[in-house]
């Protein structure tokens, strides 16, 4: 098919379009042997090994600027830099030049914002654009379309919006998370996408950061395992590739400000921040995206240590590395690292980036400038041709692996059979992610009560109910949440039922609903601490007081608006004052009525100042399409909550960072709710904890042991329960984290039932970087005695000799004699320290 297209297009262009571009960029060099004659000759030879397209032949046909074109990716949602409107189609008229002129390798619809949210229009649009590309570009190389399908294929109306990542973490249900990813892959591929920029594998560390909700957990081992499963799921469809992002250490920006510099240590990088990516890479994702920030004084995009030495040489990644949005330019605009775009491009490509993602227009250089700059860098010998070819090869290989040369377009009928599916998985994850933080006999409701349901959920300007925005969160039919937080009545939505509808459907008593003011203003930094404008008008107060006075129970929704990236950064974790006034009014009006808070948020929002006034609190996170059902089911006892926090809920913002695996001392660091906290409507008791083998002579050869514990449901309700084994005490040559999660298992037990639960414990979670401050020695599980705990039950595991499980080599980068032998250089280095 490629041959045919190449033959058809050969000569047609007479290189006019290319000339226009060359004029525009001033670039004029073609690589040896390239020209229309060479194109057709080499084209005949394209079907190479294993039926795959002959990449080398193709590579040899491309001019230098065409090669760089393949390394270029552009956001099509923002094609017109003067317009903030999303184009209403894929517009061959507006986008066509990307292919006929620049032969771009890839386009994206960043921010879950395709030109249209309509499934059919999207598929037809992308097919038409691809066909245009194949007909009008000189080499007819199909483009890759990348999207942010991050919690479902949430680019289309009617899609299933799975619970956000903060919810996924609470489930400890890797299997269902993988199933959800599989559905996402099928839906995104049927839509015509080839690439999703998931899974986010950035370790939760700071709830002030606007992307906290995208983290799964603050436990590195659990995060790695979930991310690995998501890679498997997302790449289960041959037409879609995943992206492990944002490599590495993106999640600890100073002050919680997105894309600020990350100050960390070699020990912390090697123990906590990088291991989740390493584990995810075991599933062989086809691509990796780079951290937009800077780490220890170096922009990640310019870090050869991160992108080549660690990622490729140490972790063995051989796929494609894509930059994040405009991030070569961000070295100038954000990091003040250089004032030269040319230098930024040079450092980025030499460090290991294969494809440059270009966003918004505005100040940032567009594709023509990137191509021109790179061409001139190669011509001047500042980027080698080998380096460039390697990147282009990766782009072309990715296209071949995804079958784009054989089938560049998709069957438009497929999307309808998959859109909005996997409801069972979505419901399961939503239910499993409900975390009951507090319950003083207020829950579950019997269902016979007359209930007042209130809390943010009404947009006073648009005059519509809008609580669903909070339920879905960011990356849902828009970057900052549905249509950037300004939905129209009846406008496009993911599939789903609201909390109000679901409660109404299940309650036998009467429901009074008084939504209070909430305006999503995601781009307004003034409101970003609360992630929205919240209000409690006099009329609403009157209605709330009247209804509360006669209600048998009050359910008050609390939390924060949808948000994303820097616009979501917050300096506060306490709830917005209007929400606190609402709680105070209910408390005053109905002091003896049970009041239940449901927190819908992407961070640990709220503290004792509000929760002390509530009789029960459910953390529902951002539970997505089936979150309405899950919340209603939890309130009414149809779902016995089983979610467990996968991060510490700090007492207040002043206690941040407040990580569960912090080093001692932990005085004054007690969280409000600890990692692993989550109540149930029944009780579980443990006994007979043991571990086998109880002693491990070498963790390298015995990386897993098995714990066994008896669990009994001693309460009156059936329920699911997550049994967790932690390491709670150990000593070594360096500080040991306060607690480390070693294994977890979900069990389901009827009232009075018990079971013996066996759990595999991953000893790599016990690895530390021994040695002094530099933190450069090989990681090991040190010899010693490790206390293991399940609830109050404890036992001990003995490690006789230290051993490495995940990596027995010292840190990279200590090779001053440049002989490629890090270890001897480390020895020298340590000797030097001793002198
Ligand atoms: C910037 C974000 O950091 C990244 O996660 C996302 O995939 C890209 N934009 C594309 O939208």
UniProtKB/TrEMBL annotation:
Its EC number is 3.2.1.21. It comes from the Archaea. Pfam families: Fn3-like, Glyco_hydro_3, Glyco_hydro_3_C. The keyword Signal applies. GO terms for biological process: glucan catabolic process. Residues 721-794 form the Fibronectin type III-like domain. It is an enzyme of class 3 (hydrolase). Coiled coil: none annotated. Residues 1-26, 32-51 are annotated as: Disordered. It catalyses: Hydrolysis of terminal, non-reducing beta-D-glucosyl residues with release of beta-D-glucose. GO terms for molecular function: beta-glucosidase activity. InterPro entries: Cellulose_Degrad_GH3, Fn3-like, GH, Glyco_hydro_3_C, Glyco_hydro_3_C_sf, Glyco_hydro_3_N, Glyco_hydro_3_N_sf, Ig-like_fold. Residues 32-42 have a biased composition (Low complexity). Keywords: Glycosidase, Hydrolase, Signal. NCBIfam families: TAT_signal_seq. Belongs to the glycosyl hydrolase 3 family. This is beta-glucosidase. The gene is nagZ_2.
